[in-house]
Amino acid sequence: MQEQLRASADVAIKECLAVQPHERVLVITDTKLHEVGEVLFRTAAEIAETAMVTILPRKSHGEEPPPDVAEMMKAYDVLIIPTDRSMSHTEARRNACKAGARCATLPNILPETMVRAMNADYRRIADLSIKMAELITKATSAQVTTPAGTDLSFSLDGMTGIADTGILHKPGGFTNLPAGEAYSAPVEGTARGTLVIDGAIADTGVLSPDDHIHIDVENGYAVTISGGKSAEYLLSIMEPHGKKAFNIAELGIGTNYKAKLIGSILEDEKALGTIHIAMGDNRSMGGNIRVASHLDGILLRPSLYFDGEPIIVDGEIVV
User: Fold this and answer.
1) What's the CATH superfamily of 2-117?
2) pTM exceeds 0.85, yes or no
3) pLDDT digits (tens, 9 = 90+) for 289-309
């Protein structure tokens, strides 16, 4: 496994991030993902000046790192962040990118995900991600349906699609690794309908057919969340953050042909043929809502329509 992890780290450092000898690299990890952080640190250190900081795991996705670490982040050219809870949607990450750092987050990455989904043809993934992002940008409205019961619509008018290609060579760029999605925030306050999460969300693992999460959406917010134990768990981690955590924050389209639904959101949301709808913070995808929570719900066999035209039908891209 160590040799396979090292091969995947090579892809991340040399191909996705294209680290150069004159650059300074900072790896931020925590006590839960220290092994992955160590592999990435050693790989980067063979090329450039590299430091590693280990922090305590955050309590929620989107919680800020310690202030001194946030300040450090602005001083480096490349940031690599394998942590248990995602730092993607933090002010620390956004401010570091504004300062010129290019940043890859690897939230809660499993060794099997790193081995499988990182070893992919990222040019192929990039081409599809860019194509989907362009379609998002052109669209003014969207509708998502699934066999499980989702029927959700919202405006995309004026929003910009973002391609998470995994190719991160320019200052200020940001990606997940493994990568492979196109995404945007819906226009705030416009989402309405029914959302049925039937794939996975947060730490639920893959959802069973009798544990789907049913969400009623009005005026851009989830107003009721019902179902079994996974719905109860989801409510328990959202409610402490208040109303903003219930904002319909993101439409995401998976574009990584090697990713699979395994119950780990980092990989699940990239799987080709899936869509994810997130709730909570949307500032990383063009919105205005800041909250220390961002939770992606995976939808299986989705159909997606932009301005009434089919983009995905039953999990198959048709454009």
Assistant:
1) Thermophilic metalloprotease (M29) (3.40.1830.10)
2) yes
3) 999 999 999 999 999 999 999
